[in-house]
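Course assignment 3, question 2. Fill in each field.
Student: A.L.
Task: Predict the tertiary structure for the chain below.
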Amino acid sequence: MKCEVLIDWLTFSVKKDDPNEVIREYLGLDPALFQDTGYSLLGYNKVLRFSDICVCCEPRENKHFQNMGICVSMSGNGCRAFETMSRLGAKDKQGTQSVAFPALFRLLTADETANVSRIDTACDDREGYLDMDQIIAKTRANAVNSRMRWKDIHESIDGVNKAGATVYIGAPSSDFRVRIYDKALEQGVEGHWVRVELVMRSANANAFVEEMTNSENVGKLAAQVINDKFSFIERDDSNITRCTVCDWWRNFVDELDKVRLVSREVIQHGVERIRSWIENQVGPSLYILMKTMGIMDIYSIAASSAGRISPSRRR
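Answer field:
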């Protein structure tokens, strides 16, 4: 696939009191996976965590925090764990399309108490349309057609050599911001992989999720957002709005427009790897035990092994 679109951050809240209900119904996960972190976050006294998925409950309920319900926040790794392990949506967990996020968005849109405070959408160029040196040069030359006036370039240095750069368009506090960087360089992998991240908050985030439930063509939606917010241009007219859009940028957005469903990074979480190993290596033996000794005997074996798990694997 030349371009991919995936959800790389999501924070939402629902007016519920029971975090276990939210974990089961909105995340499609087993509450037993989540552990109390012992710290507070986002105005909540209690945070339950699994992977990088945080479920915040027991709001402080002072004059600044009232009627907050339950808040769920997942970073990039949390999003990947959610896609991999959630029971929401179809059962095909080895495909390349996310079925969990569209199902979650439908639930949030149907819930009048739900509020999406942030969603990050990652638009990945795997073909070679985007070149970071070109993007940096255009940003420095102010060859960007955008209502967002705030632009910045953060460069990192490894010793004496440049180790990468991130281009920011939009102020850090704004409801819409763009990050563009070399994802392959960040991950230390071969091949071309430039990521354009759309960071949407408040009304922008809620509107994007609502639009996602009305159309499977997430690429078209992302392309529409990009075309509305900014483009890299040739300075061939005194009026910036009449300047020609760069061919390479137009080609990237046009290719993005063709992406129909949210892409899914196929990973195996630690728990899923364990399940896969058991299924492949000892599945037949488990079946024999179940048929001869009963399911409770298998449960007894598992329960008696709890003390042999290292503290790091209990998390």
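Instructor remarks: The chain is about 35% helix and 25% strand. Residues 202-214 form the longest helix (13 residues).
Grade: pending
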